[in-house]
Amino acid sequence: MNMKLALTGKTLLVSLGLGLAIAPYLITEVKGQNQQVTRVKNLTWEVSQSYQPPDRSAPSATAGGASRGGCIESAGVLTSLMPQNNLGLTLTGYPTFFWYVPKSKAEALEFKLLDGENGQVIYKKTLAVPSNSGIVSFRLPNNELSAPLEVGKMYHWFLTMICPPNPNQELPDKSGNVIVDGWVERIQLNPNLVNKLEKAAPSDRPALYAAAGIWHESLTTLVDLLRQKPDDRNLKNQWKKLLDSVGLNVLVEKPMLDCCTSKPN
């Protein structure tokens, strides 16, 4: 009598210090008395396209992920490309941040990075405002910070859209400014993930970062690939799935802008 046994859903746990899993899928078939065939189906694509958040969230959210002010001229709001928990993990001491900036009459964008423990401002930069709506990015410059982000320490960042003052006010009025904020924490790169990244094709690396809960590298590597191949259907699909998984589906079709450069203070 022939017997067929299918074992499905066996998950291989990869210890990343975050309680997360990346899962190949094992199917074992027993054909006849002594014939056993094992097939491995790589489910990295299906599993990893959705961002898997760490088991903790940001300490607080002062401004949240999206806001609209009086000097915004187009549809949409100033939005940070962040997970719902407002905490982005990174592997680098100089991560890249992303925002959707609508067209506005703003005079400047101001980025501030604060020590998460004492609230001290450790870095501040004034950025130029893009002329059109779109997704912009800013990488912490390694030549301007006194030191890279420390491993295991949280930092609180703010992006402020500085709107022109109300001419009817006698004193400067900042109530029209638009602010978004978020948190970033640098973590150690796990050797298991290193091995997977070394073996993976460049187009698969954003998915591996996403499955490990490493937001900044997942987003940055995917954006870099899309800039190189903007018409690649596979990359576009990854972009959609990643943003959908963190509730940012309204930004999927927004253009990526070459921005932002610093302005003289």
Short summary:
With 265 residues, this protein is an alpha+beta fold. The chain contains five helices and eleven strands.
Features:
DUF928; globular; 5 helices; disordered N terminus; 4-stranded antiparallel beta sheet; alpha+beta; about 25% strand; about 260 residues; 5-stranded mixed beta sheet
Structural description of this entry:
The chain has 5 helices and 11 strands. The chain has helices at residues 44-48, 191-199, 205-211, 215-228, 233-245, and strands at residues 25-31, 35-41, 66-67, 78-80, 87-90, 96-101, 108-115, 121-127, 134-139, 154-162, 178-186. The protein has a 5-stranded mixed β-sheet with strand order 5-11-10-7-8, covered by helices on one side. Strands 3-4-6-9 form a 4-stranded antiparallel β-sheet, with helices on one face. Strands 1-2 form a two-stranded antiparallel ribbon. The termini are far apart. The relative contact order is 0.20.
* Mean pLDDT reading: 79
Range of helix content: 10-25%
Within the largest sheet, what's the order of strands?
A: 5-11-10-7-8
Strand % is: 25-35%
Main sheet characteristics: 5 strands, mixed
The end-to-end span amounts to 82 Å
Looking at how many chains there are and whether they match, the oligomeric state comes to single chain
Based on CA atoms alone, the radius of gyration comes out at 22 Å
User: Tally the helices: what do you get?
Assistant: 5
Topology:
Layout: E1 25-31, E2 35-41, H1 44-48, E3 66-67, E4 78-80, E5 87-90, E6 96-101, E7 108-115, E8 121-127, E9 134-139, E10 154-162, E11 178-186, H2 191-199, H3 205-211, H4 215-228, H5 233-245
Helix pairs in contact: 3-4, 4-5
